[in-house]
Write a structure and sequence with these properties.
mainly alpha
């Protein structure tokens, strides 16, 4: 490969004033010993063509790495030389392009100033068109205008010159009329239903009746889930408390009796009998301080004991029945 590259010179013809760019340059020819280099490379690589290595052995792994490193080094040497030539060859072109960009930047500055003014004028035109559409909307929509602001209806293409003012008015009116119709449909079919407010709010936000109905359905599903959660978290209702006895007796009712240490319920209610002449209820008897007492009954049925209990309760005596002999009752009491 030749060690020298022919320089390329781009000669810019300097004039006092010029309306266009005039350049004189000489095409360069790069000469290199490509054929000889290619023959050398092919001869070198031929020794490695189809080479295989038994990489189960440590020494073969080292040999394979050495061969690969040698081939990569050969490639790197050629590549570095190529890059060096490219840098030298590109220097005149880089300088030429840099000078051109410096000059065009002067033109860009003036053009950008004009563009900024055009853009400002276009924005002002669109703002005027937007204001006219908003004004038309407030006149056309009536009571709907305070509820739904114009920006929710606005479409950017309505401001394009190619769209046209009349066409924009018609498109706006169609969109407002559709919302008014959807609102009437919603009110006629669902007003007063649970979550109607959610549906109405979504309709005015999205201008979409389907989205409004979906919002109401989701709100209903969420409310049902919350209700189920609350029900699952509430404690089990406690059973109603039994009437508190006066002593060991239910006030005015059947006694809380124990027979064989097992509680028994009230006596069954008998069929009503003829009402005898009124008899004054016995008054509680008290002739001094109350002391513990034992009542001995030779024998009695459950109904009889319940009757005795009611009588005792009516005169202010409280206690517990125990079935058995005196000895048996005594033994169960002291256990």
């Amino acid at each position: 490969m030749s060690n020298e590259a022919e320089n390329v010179v781009a000669e810019v013809i300097e004039e006092q004033d010029a309306s266009s760019l005039t350049v004189a340059y000489k095409p360069s020819v790069i000469e290199a010993n490509f054929d000889a280099l290619e023959a050398h490379v092919r001869k070198t690589v031929e020794a490695y063509d189809g080479a295989t290595y038994d990489l189960t052995k440590k020494e073969n792994i080292a040999e394979a790495k050495h061969d690969r490193s040698y081939l990569n080094g050969l490639k790197k040497e050629i590549d570095e030389r190529r890059k060096a030539v490219k840098r030298e060859y590109s220097k005149p072109l880089d300088a030429f392009e840099k000078r051109c960009k410096q000059i065009t930047a002067i033109i860009d500055e003036a053009a950008d100033n004009i563009k900024a003014q055009l853009d400002q004028a276009e924005e002002e035109r669109k703002a005027r068109a937007y204001a006219k559409l908003q004004e038309h909307y407030e006149e056309f929509a009536g009571l709907l205008a305070p509820v739904v602001p114009y920006e929710r209806f606005h479409e950017p293409q309505w401001l394009n010159k190619t769209f046209g003012e009349i066409k924009a008015y018609e498109a706006l009116e169609a969109k407002v009329s559709k919302l008014a119709g959807d609102w009437e449909t919603l009110k006629s079919q669902f007003e007063g239903e649970p979550f109607y407010a959610e549906a109405e709010r979504e309709l005015f936000a999205t201008l979409d009746l389907g989205a409004a109905l979906t919002a109401a359905r989701k709100a209903a599903e969420e409310a049902a889930r919350i209700a189920e959660l609350k029900a699952a978290m509430e404690p089990e209702p406690e059973p109603e408390a039994a009437p508190k006895p006066a002593g060991n007796w239910y006030p005015g009712g059947s006694p809380m009796q124990e027979i064989d240490d097992e509680p028994i319920g009230p006596a069954p209610i008998a069929a009503p009998a003829p009402v005898p002449a009124p008899v004054a209820s016995p008054e509680p008897v008290s002739s001094g301080p109350a002391t513990p007492c034992v009542m001995l009954i030779d024998s009695a049925t459950t109904d009889q004991m319940q009757a005795i209990g009611r009588f005792c309760g009516s005169i202010g005596v409280s206690g517990v029945f125990k079935r058995g002999t005196l000895q048996q009752v005594y033994e169960r009491t002291i256990r």
